[in-house]
């Protein structure tokens, strides 16, 4: 009996080839590319340095190295000027948060990267600073949104469900990180 072209094995092969085709650069540049969000842009204001940044960190299917370098500099430890690579998963989390807030409102950065020296200094003056803070790995950011209640920002971050969320209403900021999902 002749084997059908559409048996299970061939069906799976065809599906895998089609999926690979959808990921190809040709597909991304085709008319169907409009179905995929091609650019991820983050808008920031650093409350300690007074700097602003508008960075398109993802474009045409890949991370933009120049923009990532600008973000790394922007997120630097402002006390020591030390720079650490900020994990792109954190940027993706911040992008997801930014999609849930009013357009053209920058995320106010309270703390991005923290050097071990700064982290130790902060631990000596505050009980809320972790000894192995994810800020020291470029995995965390403390943020606020101008004009938005911190409780609302906290809810947005929790609803995304992508990492840790710390709520600091007295200091008016929310901590987000790409560690395990948890909240405090």
Description:
The protein has 184 residues and is of the alpha+beta class. It has six helices and eight strands; from the N terminus they run H-H-E-E-E-H-H-E-H-E-H-E-E-E. It has an eight-stranded mixed beta sheet with strand order 3-2-1-4-5-7-6-8. The longest helix is centred in the N-terminal third of the chain and has 16 residues, at 8-23. It is globular.
Give me some keywords for this one.
6 helices, 184 residues, 22% strand, disordered N terminus, globular, 8-stranded mixed β-sheet, alpha+beta
| Helix-strand category | alpha+beta
Q: Shape from CA axes?
A: globular
**What is the CA-atom radius of gyration, in angstroms?**
21 Å
Main sheet: strands, sense, barrel:
8 strands, mixed
Our estimate of the beta-strand percent is 15-25%
Could you list the spans in which at least 5 consecutive residues all have pLDDT below 50? 1-6, 21-35
């Amino acid at each position: 009996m002749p084997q059908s072209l559409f048996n299970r094995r061939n069906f799976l092969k065809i599906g895998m080839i089609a999926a690979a085709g959808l990921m190809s650069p040709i597909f991304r540049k085709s008319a169907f590319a409009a179905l995929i969000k091609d650019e991820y842009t983050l808008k920031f204001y650093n409350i300690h340095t007074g700097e602003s940044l508008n960075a398109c960190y993802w474009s045409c299917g890949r991370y933009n190295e120049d923009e990532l370098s600008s973000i790394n500099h922007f997120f630097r430890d402002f006390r020591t000027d030390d720079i650490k690579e900020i994990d792109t998963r954190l940027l993706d989390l911040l992008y997801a948060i930014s999609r849930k807030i009013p357009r053209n409102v920058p995320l106010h950065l309270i703390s991005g990267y923290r050097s071990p020296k700064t982290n130790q200094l902060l631990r000596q003056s505050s009980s809320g600073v972790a000894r192995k803070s994810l800020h020291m790995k470029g995995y965390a950011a403390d943020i606020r949104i101008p004009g938005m209640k911190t409780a609302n920002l906290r809810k947005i971050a929790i609803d995304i469900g992508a990492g840790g969320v710390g709520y600091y209403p007295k200091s008016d900021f929310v901590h987000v990180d790409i560690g395990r999902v948890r909240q405090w």
